[in-house]
Amino acid sequence: MQLSVLSGSRGEIGEAHGHAHAALITHSLEVYDRLFHDFVGIGWAEACTAAEAFLPMIERGFPAILEEMDGIARGAGLDFADILTLNCRSEISLTQASGGCTAFSLERDGTQWLAQNWDWRTDQLHNVVALELHPGDAPALVSIGEAGMVAKIGMNDRGLGVCLNAIRSRTCGEGLPIHVALRKILESPDLDRAVRVATHDRVCSPAHFLLASRDGQATGFEVHPGLPGRLPPHAGTVTHTNHLVAETATCQVEDFPRPDSRSRLTRLDRLLHERLPLGTPIDEAALFGLLADHDNAPMSICRHFNPQQPPEERMETLFAVVMNLSEGRLTLRHGKPCESADSLTIRLPPG
């Protein structure tokens, strides 16, 4: 996978994104057209109508990003409604379909690490893109995600990083759509400002955002339209899969996790304790090794396609990311971390 480096105004960045990845964006629309039909019984036109409900929330909470969405549409030769709908896909579809994803932060010997697998539908594997953005009015940032979407998992040049875990729930209310909120976090100049996205702007539908900064701070936020649940570090780590944990969240939101969410979390906690005790040298290879774990396969941390599962549960690991926030370095393995050591390493000098 190649890195797309984009700079300029928001409209210019969007147009360059759309032009560079037009074919992938169009394919993403086809993937989500099928997903909306399969899981919520609506076609693309109906999904676009549903996405219009989120436009006023974005206009209130992050109006500048709309210019970039419009640029993506222009560059890809699509309608603005298509890009808006793509960026609201979680709010439209996650009432029925949830991804996998296993994420953790780790602080050791003055270095802050952040890592995760992203598990999703197989047909999105080749629509993953790596973007390095240099907007004129915000910190430089790296986002690993889906073509046509404004952000997903990444870091910025202020030493701030974010990971994402999907949460399946019927809750949806006022706030920013998940992927728009992730982009606003990545544009935050510091951790306090990033936290305000979860606590002040709020997020339309439930998800888990794992925030960390190069100065060794990390907290998990189980976001939703109400007050988010907070998960502080324990022995320098925060871990999460796809179910709600914090009482602040569970008392407000009902979730419907995949059967393997709790077992993956238990396995991840055990691996961190057994393989990386205090004093153990840590590098990207060691953390990718955790993300490549196959215990309890096929419902393992590293997930492979399993045709014996129901169609809505057929997810696989599409990429793995390890971030060294202290050194401003993100390493990506596209596909399953067990299958290839080939990686893309991106460095952001401190801003």
TrEMBL record:
<feature type="domain" description="Peptidase C45 hydrolase">
    <location>
        <begin position="108"/>
        <end position="337"/>
    </location>
</feature>
<dbReference type="InterPro" id="IPR047794">
    <property type="entry name" value="C45_proenzyme-like"/>
</dbReference>
<dbReference type="Pfam" id="PF03417">
    <property type="entry name" value="AAT"/>
</dbReference>
<keyword id="KW-0808">Transferase</keyword>
<dbReference type="GO" id="GO:0016740">
    <property type="term" value="F:transferase activity"/>
</dbReference>
<protein>
    <submittedName>
        <fullName>Peptidase C45 acyl-coenzyme A--6-aminopenicillanic acid acyl-transferase</fullName>
    </submittedName>
</protein>
<dbReference type="InterPro" id="IPR047801">
    <property type="entry name" value="Peptidase_C45"/>
</dbReference>
<dbReference type="InterPro" id="IPR005079">
    <property type="entry name" value="Peptidase_C45_hydrolase"/>
</dbReference>
